[in-house]
Amino acid sequence: MRRITEVFGGRRNLLFSGLLLALLFILLLDLFFVHHIFSPFVYFYLCFALVIVFYGIYPLYVSRRLTRYYWDRTKRHHLAVIGLVFIIFLVAVAIFGPFLTQDPTKVDFPNKNLPPVGFSAEQSTYDRTTGQFITRETPGTWLHPLGTDDKGRDMLAMLVSGTRISLQVGLMATLIAIFIGLIMGVVSAYLGGWADNALMRFTDIMMTFPFFLLLVFIVFIFGPSLWFIILAIGLTGWTGTARLVRSESLSLRTRDFIMASKSLGASDRRIVFHHLIPNVLSSVIVIATLSIPGVILAEAALSFIGLGDPTVTSWGLVLQAGQRSLETAWWIAVEPGIMLFLTVLAFNFLGDGVRDAFDPRSQV
Amino acid sequence: MATNNTILQVSELKTYFFTRLGVVRAVDGVSFGLRQGECLCLVGESGCGKTATALSILRLVDSPPGQIVGGEIKYHNENLLRSTGARLRQIRGNRIAMIFQDPQSSLNPVLTVGEQIMEPIRLHLKLGHRQARDKALSLMKQVGIPQSAERMAYFPHQLSGGMKQRVMIAAALSCNPEILIADEPTTALDTTIKAQILDIFRELKQQMNMSILFITHDLGTVAGIADRIIVMYGGRIAEAGSTLDIFDQPKHPYTWGLLNCLPTIAERREKLSPIPGMIPSLIDPPEGCIFHPRCQWRMSVCQQAKPPEYVISGEHIAACYLYQKAPASAGL
Questions:
Q1: CATH number given to A74-113+148-358
Q2: What is the ipTM of this complex?
Q3: CB A293 within 8 A of CB B151
Q4: Which of A22, A97, A150, B26 is close enough to A160 for a disulfide, judged by CB 3.0 to 4.6 Å?
Q5: How confident is the model at residue A364 (pLDDT cuts 50, 70, 90)?
């Protein structure tokens, strides 16, 4: 038992791998025998949650002193705290919101183009009895607090659904990109020589691809599924991380503690996973936080030009639908726009705060 | 001259660094033996090959640019220069441990002190978490870290330099190594802490019968703990002998120079006299004896050939043509 634990590098890793395997097993069972009780997304989330709990919350809980230190440093940035609060709110909305709101796809033509509560807009409706169009002021109702779109769908429900989509894309694509970038960077720096050269030239090639064009191309070939969009963004967005991690690992590699750890008998694998990666993790967290908004915007942009997944109600899709009726029903385009704006801003603020907290060079 | 209790025998070790400017002969034919329970000191100026010698023993010389090009390092009849990576990892930290100069940078900033002391314990002794923790606690007590249970959870930046060096020593001692290589362990510390750390080494030697290879540039530090001293210059041994030999009857002009640099209380000196000149470039060393450009006693022969090691008496040897009439030794 102890030997198995040693191979995995500790009890925590063992438990994590075990749970991951169990999850995979259930997924296979679901795919081939029970037939799709949950969507594959659910499994991905559970995976994600496992990673967060085992390698995010658990270490933070164990070293409470360090947690408090980082929190104190992040707290000094008021904007970062506001950003964090907003992000927590978004996550809560994404998880629980869809159960509380109406069906975002339910079409209700009589109630189309309703303005948000507190606003009113001129609406021309066809009066059956007179056979004429009547223009009248329609006030917003509490039944649709944020109004409805040109097909009578509830804006609030659509925005909540969009929150879920945006966070899904943002978190998962970033996770994939960060993971690839981290491994590429550390391995490249640690091995050095021709391996370093090969990996970095590959990174250069990836960097020269016009990212958005590639995205459009992939969507065009494989069809506009949210999965492919996430994978495409994740598989192309790791280059910056790889470069940064490599340069940081290169300078770490020459530090005495790596030599000291070698002199105590640590293997290469142990040095990479136990000494190099934990040291670059703080910058990786910063890049991750700062790259999420970019990914969210990329997905919105794809949806906006009509290459997004048409089966999910994302912010970009609503925005695109709203721009046609900007003159008569401004809220349809403005509301998802505001949400995008606030989300991107919140992640950027948080990223700045986290960077200042993690970067010892910026000590005030 | 390998006696029975010699546990580490270095013979004709040559470690070169192949840089863009040329080949740096950092260690150029160094031979010595380390015995069970003795403290052997390597003394010399910066850049004389002390650290390169120590790193070569554990095969930790960065390659490229460094490479051990010749010689033999025998640890209990096993030539470490021929050992596989896996075997070396078994020896490092377990049988031969090393302590580095700067405790500030030798500890991983993101791991707790406890984790770092426990690392070699878990790597080599295969203890469970609980036992490893207990062992780490007792080690911390042994090296004099107060409130050790609480300090286990500290990060390196929360400890002072002396405490950090104690942590390094605790980690190096964790598997009861036979040989402890200490590369300038007191250089980065202030004087009072230095004395305390030296006390720890003295205890280790006496109580655990550990062999210590102590590397320093400071003859004053050496006097208190060394059994034997090797004075290195330019990648070669200048003089070697017991502590008494070196301090009472130094033979090599370089050793005279080093001793003249030491302040003494007994004699009243107006000024300390430094050795004139600079340490030579090891890429393009002077012909003959490397020390001859700085030597007041140089003779014409010094500029032509490298001096062999002459036996002065017993273990006392000096690589200097001043002792040409004495028989040449086969190496200490």
A1: 1.10.3720.10
A2: 0.81
A3: no
A4: A97
A5: very low
